[in-house]
């Protein structure tokens, strides 16, 4: 809301050339609030304001701007101005920014940077997007295991001001293998003459650089970490993931899962809803809707094949929505539970038989309850309906109740099965859990409904 409330005032001050007032106002705000305010301005005005701020302040605010806005602003800078901005960003932020720029601009700015920054950028940029290495930073403190506490504190005082995180000190052996960690608080409270190897925690929790970023966030949650070390295949420390970056990944993953559940495809962007173009919204939604609409033709074919059954007993049509809704709801519940368990690593695709057995038992109980309710509804609300003389409302109610029960049981099993199959093939379980589930349950539900009615009622 700040961008909508205050941005017009900032715009007016820009037009009047009162940049000192703007700078004073912006510098009194937290970088996150300042970025929210500036994001409501046109890109050229944002760049103009950032130019009037101290370089480090501008860099701190720049980091909090939406990624697309960062890219657009950076793309308009010459290589020298871009280099000045990049130097003041944290290692992971500068790589994220440069990777979002055209390749020629990426290559043009590297020679302007110092050798150390160039090598660091190339190293971090080499990791595949979505891996732990792609979200790590090299701003950490790592010390040899054989130095004393006093020597360690001296090094921290010297190196700490330039590091992103100093709350956890990582301990290395002579080959730079990660062998332990020490909390800053424990270091301060320890005797100055003790060696780091004597006070370090040797049970190190680390993540491989090529591992999925979800594996890193899982370890943050499981072990209550402030910083997570990232190692290569040889166990050498190559970077760390800080808690704020982990939170960003968690938010991103949750947003993507929510969108996948609602059949929204495409890559998630951190742009504001109102700032996202109509075409982007359209392109992210239309693909799955077309696929599901085509699959929906199968439902029509099933109805057509049971046309005679429906014509002979029109009362069946009144309860089709109940069948579809109940099947979809129970299937979605089952899928949600399984997707969550997969995300928390409580289960894996190898547990498929255990999961199916458990969900089948749950589904059977749900089927009994909902089947009885369906029978009672038919009996008490449709007693006066027009039905053939050869049938009675009790038989019809039993047929509908049994059909609903079978539908609930099958939908529960399908809802559990789809995410497990997706996970087994390395796909996002949320991608198929909801869009595919709804269509499959609708198709199977219609077939179960009319087949059961035809079998039990003889029509």
Automatic annotation (TrEMBL):
Q: Which family does it belong to?
A: Belongs to the SLC41A transporter family.
* Role this protein plays: Acts as a magnesium transporter.
The protein's matches in SMART domains, at most eight in alphabetical order, are given as: CBS, MgtE_N
Record-linked Pfam families:
CBS, MgtE, MgtE_N
- TM ranges are 286-306, 360-380, 392-425, 437-457
Domain CBS residues, every copy: 136-199, 200-256
Query: What keywords sit in the KW lines?
Result: CBS domain, Cell membrane, Magnesium, Membrane, Metal-binding, Transmembrane, Transmembrane helix, Transport
Entry GO terms, CC = plasma membrane
Query: What is the membrane topology listed in the Swiss-Prot or TrEMBL record?
Result: Multi-pass membrane protein
Alphabetical list of SUPFAM superfamilies matching this protein: CBS-domain pair (SSF54631), MgtE membrane domain-like (SSF161093), MgtE N-terminal domain-like (SSF158791)
Q: Which NCBIfam families does the record match to this protein?
A: mgtE
Coiled-coil stretches, from where to where?
A: none
Q: Where in the cell is it found?
A: Cell membrane; Membrane
Q: What does the subunit section of this Swiss-Prot or TrEMBL entry state?
A: Homodimer.
Q: Which GO terms describe its molecular function?
A: magnesium ion transmembrane transporter activity; metal ion binding
Q: Which PANTHER family does this UniProt record tie to the protein?
A: MAGNESIUM TRANSPORTER MGTE
Name-wise, this protein is Magnesium transporter MgtE
């Amino acid at each position: 809301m700040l961008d909508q409330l205050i941005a017009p005032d900032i715009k007016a001050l820009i037009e009047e050339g009162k940049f000192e007032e703007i700078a004073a106002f912006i510098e009194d705000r937290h970088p996150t609030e300042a970025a929210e305010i500036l994001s409501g301005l046109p890109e050229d005005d944002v760049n103009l304001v950032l130019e009037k701020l101290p370089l480090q302040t501008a860099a701190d605010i720049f980091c909090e701007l939406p990624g697309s806005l960062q890219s657009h602003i950076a793309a308009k800078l010459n290589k020298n101005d871009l280099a000045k901005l990049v130097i003041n960003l944290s290692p992971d932020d500068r790589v994220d920014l440069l990777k979002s720029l055209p390749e020629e601009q990426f290559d043009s700015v590297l020679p302007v940077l110092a050798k150390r920054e160039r090598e660091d950028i190339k190293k971090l940029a080499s990791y595949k997007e979505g891996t732990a290495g792609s979200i790590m930073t090299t701003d950490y403190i790592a010390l040899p295991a054989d130095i004393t506490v006093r020597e360690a504190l001296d090094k921290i005082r010297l190196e700490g001001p330039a590091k992103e995180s100093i709350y956890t000190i990582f301990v290395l052996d002579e080959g730079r293998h990660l062998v332990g960690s020490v909390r800053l608080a424990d270091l301060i409270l320890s005797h100055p003459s003790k060696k780091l190897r004597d006070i370090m925690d040797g049970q190190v929790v680390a993540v491989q650089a090529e591992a999925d970023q979800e594996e890193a966030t899982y370890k943050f949650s499981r072990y209550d970490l402030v910083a997570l070390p990232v190692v290569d295949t040889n166990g050498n420390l190559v970077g760390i993931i800080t808690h704020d970056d982990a939170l960003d990944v968690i938010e991103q993953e949750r947003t993507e899962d929510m969108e996948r559940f609602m059949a929204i495809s495409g890559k998630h962007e951190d742009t504001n809803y109102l700032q996202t173009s109509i075409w982007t919204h359209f392109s992210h939604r239309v693909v799955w809707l077309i696929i599901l609409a085509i699959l929906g033709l199968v439902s029509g074919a099933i109805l057509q094949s049971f046309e005679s059954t429906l014509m002979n007993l029109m009362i069946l049509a009144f309860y089709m929505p109940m069948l579809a809704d109940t099947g979809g709801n129970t299937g979605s519940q089952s899928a949600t539970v399984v997707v969550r368990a997969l995300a928390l690593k409580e289960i894996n695709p190898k547990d498929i038989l255990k999961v199916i057995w458990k969900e089948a038992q749950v589904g059977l109980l749900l089927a009994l309850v909902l089947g009885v309710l369906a029978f009672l509804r038919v009996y008490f609300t449709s007693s006066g309906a027009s039905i053939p003389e050869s049938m009675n409302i009790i038989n019809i109610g039993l047929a509908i109740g049994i059909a609903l029960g079978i539908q609930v049981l099958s939908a529960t099993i399908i809802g559990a099965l789809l995410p497990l199959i997706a996970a087994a093939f390395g796909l996002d379980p949320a991608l198929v859990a909801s869009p595919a589930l709804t269509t499959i349950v609708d198709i199977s539900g219609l077939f179960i409904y009319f087949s059961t009615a035809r079998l039990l009622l003889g029509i």
